[in-house]
Amino acid sequence: MRLLRAGEHPPCFVAYCALCCLPVARFMYRVPKEDTDSVEFEAQCCGKTQGRRVKLAEMYRLQVTGEKMFLVVGKRRHQEIRSVASR
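Below the sequence we write its predicted structure tokens.
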């Protein structure tokens, strides 16, 4: 299990918007005040603001597999991870 130490910044992570299929316009996270295995993110794009807590293991998996994390989504849709088809 990986831990993020207090005051450390999380690894590189890109969030996407499901409405425009691009990286979000504004992306923020909270630097933890104590050791933790997850990070709280907040994303803004297309006039919407949404947040989510993401585990470090999930962030590392996304880096390896090349999947996209969609944090900003439309009504009645869930935040999700999607694999991207190569063209």
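The chain has one domain: 15-82.
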